[in-house]
Amino acid sequence: MLSEVITGSEGGEGFVLIKDCVQCGGRGLLKSFIKAALLRNETVHVFEFEISQEEMYSGLTDGTSSSLVFHNGYTDPLNWISNEKPFDFSIQSIKSQIDQSKDKESEAKNVILVLDSLSWLLHHIPITDVCQLLQEPKRKESTVKRIIALMHSELHDQGIVGSVSHMANTVVTLSPIPEFTTVNWEVDPYAIGETVQRKKSGKVNREEECYTVQKDFSLIIHHDLHNRKQAIPKPDNTAQVDPAANLTFNLRLSEEERHAKERLSLPFTFSEKKKHSILQPRPGGGKIVYEPDAQDDFDEEDPDDDLDV
Amino acid sequence: MFAELNGILNWSLDKFEKGQCVLLSESKTDGSFLIHHFLSFFLKAQCKVCFLGLVQSFSHYSTVGINMLQAREKGQLVFFEGLRNSLDMLLPESDASDAEPQPLSFLRWPSTDLRNLFDFVNSSLSQSENDMSRWASPVLLIDDLSVLLSLGVNPTAVLDFIHYCRMAVCSKQQGNMVTLVHNEDDLGDEDCDLVLHALTHQSSLILQVHGLNTGYCRDVHGQVLIKHCLDHDATLTHSLTHPLINKYTISHISYYLKFRNLIG
């Protein structure tokens, strides 16, 4: 499902959120989203706060592509170096920057907005403003057709991560490949991506896939993720040691020994013969004689009356 | 300087990767020996070094390894002594010091950001033409970043400071940056975790120093995990991990390569 989301064939509109973690960064996946959009000849506006323009462009374009517009929020976002106008994080500013560069183009096209990363924005502007921006693709008159944002989920409270995830039409959550994987992969997978997609009809699709981003930012999806899960217990079965092996004594019975064992009557089994021998009075055995005292109130009908205290 | 570590990183004095942001994290043990390693490495590699020493005095750092006094006199090393500067900031001898911005001005005006500290770093490392011919690429060393959090700086302000340092040193001047941060995962220090995680996302080389899980040992003090993060690069392969054990005595440190299957 991940590659369908990237190519846009399945639910291309709206807000796509990539949540990465410390163990596996999501920038490679973000770049493959951008690359796929450029190949479709769409206009991509990148608002970059974490890496330089050279790092972002490396491998994506030869620097001449006009459909990739770079907005530099990396070099001097807080106006510490130059005394020029600082980079304005506000939503109006981001929208007007998109509109300005759009005017230069001859034809009005829908644009894709890439935020790298949303974490930077969330640290510098209130979450309400961020949410307003993320609502942009839902407005009918908006030119922003799609927003793709990268978020480092450890850097925020659960509440903020939750609210942003609720706004997204598609959420891709990255997690590292478990170390005990036993499958021999042709290409080592980079991470597990869990894609959750909410359709307009209310249907929710969810799929987990292992993926690798290649040098040209195309994606390899490893389809045998479920095989991997089943393959894990296998080595445990083979490794299980038979406890009855190599014993110094015999634990198994031959057929003859089994019959002998079954014939043996154990001391606690109460056979008919045993019962009979016990109940028959034996010669020389004792006899109980009871003579009640005169004061005893002996009830013939209930001999144990005195036990009820 | 430890030749074994250089061998594992594939670094040598005349050939090492530039434009790298190196993160050192320490948990349950002391990781400052790595700071000393990188300090003496970059001084020997003839780099222009700016050292923000916020934990120890100048004489401490200079007694541990290399002769820093000589490097400072030659102009190769700019040392910022946090202990002395913070005292001067809090107990100024005269009011004249208010006239010019001080690197640690946030101590007196807590709402301010770390812009002055960045200006100090930037001006120390911006090289004149004379410097460019004498010294190799610039290097920023910070020992350690967690002290800023302890002094009451907002974690977002610390991250802004790191962002600007990374932009100025690593991206613009193709230099290197080495930062030490505590890893307080068990203690639940949210600010420290935030800075550590954010730096992990931004760093290209991570050296994690851990105490031994089995507890104190007289000969072996801990292990070092080395991670190369190639995420920034186009080649997205998984990060490599080298488990090491470091044993250090008073005068030297020796490393023992430990195979992965021996750990678990």
UniProtKB/TrEMBL annotation, chain A:
GO terms for biological process: tRNA wobble uridine modification. GO terms for molecular function: tRNA binding. The keyword Transmembrane does not apply. The keyword Transferase does not apply. Pathway: tRNA modification; 5-methoxycarbonylmethyl-2-thiouridine-tRNA biosynthesis. GO terms for cellular component: cytosol; elongator holoenzyme complex; nucleus. InterPro entries: Elp5, P-loop_NTPase. CDD domains: Elp5. Its main location: cytoplasm. It is found in: Cytoplasm; Nucleus. Residues 293-309 have a biased composition (Acidic residues). Residues 274-309 are annotated as: Disordered. Pfam families: Elong_Iki1. Keywords: Cytoplasm, Nucleus, tRNA processing. Belongs to the ELP5 family. This is Elongator complex protein 5. It comes from Erpetoichthys calabaricus (Rope fish). The gene is elp5.
From TrEMBL, chain B:
Pfam families: ELP6. GO terms for cellular component: elongator holoenzyme complex. Pathway: tRNA modification; 5-methoxycarbonylmethyl-2-thiouridine-tRNA biosynthesis. Gene3D superfamilies: P-loop containing nucleotide triphosphate hydrolases (3.40.50.300). It comes from the Eukaryota. Coiled coil: none annotated. InterPro entries: ELP6, P-loop_NTPase. GO terms for biological process: tRNA wobble uridine modification. Belongs to the ELP6 family. This is Elongator complex protein 6. It comes from Erpetoichthys calabaricus (Rope fish). The lineage of its organism: Eukaryota, Metazoa, Chordata, Craniata, Vertebrata. The gene is ELP6.
